[in-house]
């Protein structure tokens, strides 16, 4: 059993702008632990987490990979955690250089269905709502990233995504297969209060 | 932490800026050196990911002249140690990165590069 990363250095003030680890985070950790064998086998050099919040997920992956493996973890959010942090929208300044180079991609997106304007407003500002407001069917932000994830994923790379039942998981899986040739499976699913959460894992259909 | 490993992977992504947009140039840099654990196997494995000319040029601009013009054919521990220092121990804490093509300025504050673009600058 791998211990949950200690995020006790973060205060209530931090949690007014970043997402405090919650049920979805813990399900994500459980899924990654279940996949530990596959993750190690990748011999990852570059990991990328989009919107890393507390940094808990990336730290956990670093523990799975072990001290002898030193993958570079990019945290794409403007918040300081002990990784390479870049304040950017998705990964666009990295695509030019990281084309098909990223071995592990992690994304726990803002997946809660909200009004379109609410999500747009939340993503532009620095409010905590940006961590959950996902617009129509909760997929407004996720869809933007799904369009570019194949560009980043390495030949045998793995992409993990958190989704809610209302996001229409079978549709996401079908679309990624048909439009980007990424096959997927549900690693774990769990009901937590009113949320029915899924952890999806994508990889190339025919890696060379 | 804008370490040179990160800098070596960032290109300008402003609208219509597609050529000569890498590497970004450093400006008004405040540099800090922080020791990091040396893992020769990792540095060796990471070598093919590096854009060599950009790394050497940038390191020299920051005052580190330990890397040769060309990647050596024989990779020894001294070389890996120097490379490790350049990639992982030089931290740009404050300053900016400027696109050589469109001159867009990406500020660095408290070690975090701000790569966000205004709405009209997004491709």
Any overview of this molecule?
The complex is a heterodimer of chains A (208) and B (123). Chain A has helices spanning 23-34, 36-41, 56-65, 92-95, 116-124, 140-146, 149-152, 169-180, and strands at 46-50, 72-76, 84-86, 102-107, 153-164, 182-192, 195-204. Chain A has 208 residues and is of the alpha/beta class. Chain A has a 7-stranded mixed beta sheet with strand order 3-2-1-4-5-7-6, with helices on both faces. In chain A, a hairpin with a 2-residue loop joins strand 6 (182-192) and strand 7 (195-204). With 123 residues, chain B is an alpha+beta fold. Helices cover 28% and strands 22% of the residues of chain B. Chain B has helices at 4-7, 40-46, 52-61, 77-89, and strands at residues 2-3, 25-33, 90-98, 105-109, 112-113. In chain B, strand 4 and strand 5 (112-113) form a beta hairpin. The longest helix of chain B has 13 residues, at 77-89. Chain B is globular, with a radius of gyration of 15 Å. The A-B interface holds A 43, 45-46, 68-70, 72, 74, 78, 80, 84-89, 92-98, 101 and B 1, 3, 5-6, 8-13, 21-22, 37, 39, 41-42, 45-46, 49, 51, 110-117, 122-123. Chain B: GO terms for molecular function: protein heterodimerization activity.
Low-pLDDT segments of chain A: 78-82
- Oligomeric state of the chains? heterodimer
In percent, how much strand structure appears in the residues of chain B?
Answer: 15-25%
Helix tally of chain A equals 8
Radius of gyration of chain B: 15 Å
Shape of chain B: globular
Major sheet of chain A: order of its strands?
3-2-1-4-5-7-6
How far apart the termini of chain A lie comes to 33 Å
Mean pLDDT of chain A: 83
Number of contiguous helices of chain B: 4
Q: What Rg of chain A do the Cα atoms give?
A: 16 Å
How many individual β-strands of chain A? 7
Q: Element order, helices and strands of chain A?
A: HHEHEEHEHHHEHEE
Could you name the ranges of chain B where pLDDT drops below 50 across 5 or more consecutive residues? none
Give helix and strand order of chain B, one letter per element, not per position.
EHEHHHEEE
Distance between the termini of chain B: 26 Å
The helix content of chain B, as a percent range, equals 25-40%
* Secondary-structure-derived class of chain B: alpha+beta
Helix proportion of residues of chain A, in percent?
25-40%
């Amino acid at each position: 059993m791998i211990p949950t990363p200690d995020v006790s250095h973060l205060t209530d003030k931090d949690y007014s702008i970043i997402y405090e680890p919650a049920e979805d985070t813990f399900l994500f950790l459980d899924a990654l632990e279940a996949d530990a064998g596959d993750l190690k086998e990748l011999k990852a050099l570059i990991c990328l987490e989009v919107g890393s919040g507390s940094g808990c997920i990336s730290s956990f992956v670093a523990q799975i990979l072990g001290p002898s493996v030193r993958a570079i973890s990019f945290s794409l959010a403007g918040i300081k955690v002990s990784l390479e942090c870049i304040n950017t929208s998705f990964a666009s300044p990295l695509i030019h250089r990281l084309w098909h180079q990223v071995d592990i991609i992690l994304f726990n997106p803002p997946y809660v269905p909200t009004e379109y304007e609410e999500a747009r407003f939340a993503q532009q500002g620095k409010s905590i709502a940006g961590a959950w407001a996902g617009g129509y069917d909760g997929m407004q932000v996720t869809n933007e990233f799904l369009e570019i994830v194949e560009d980043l994923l390495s030949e045998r790379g793995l992409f993990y995504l958190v989704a809610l039942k209302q996001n229409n998981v079978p549709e996401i899986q079908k679309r990624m297969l048909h439009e980007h040739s990424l096959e997927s499976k549900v690693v774990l699913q769990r009901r937590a209060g009113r949320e029915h959460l899924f952890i999806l894992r994508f990889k190339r259909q025919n890696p060379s | 932490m804008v370490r040179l490993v990160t800098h070596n992977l960032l290109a300008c992504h402003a609208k219509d800026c597609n050529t000569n947009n890498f590497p970004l140039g450093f400006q008004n840099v405040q540099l800090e050196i922080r020791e990091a654990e040396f893992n020769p196997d990792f540095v060796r494995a990471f070598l093919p990911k590096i854009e060599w000319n950009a790394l050497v040029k940038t390191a020299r601009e920051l005052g580190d002249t330990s890397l040769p013009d060309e990647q050596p054919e024989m990779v020894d521990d001294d070389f890996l140690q120097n490379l490790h220092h350049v990639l992982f121990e030089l931290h740009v804490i404050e300053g900016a990165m400027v696109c050589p093509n469109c001159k867009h300025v990406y500020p660095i504050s408290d070690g975090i590069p701000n790569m966000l673009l205004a709405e009209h600058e997004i491709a």
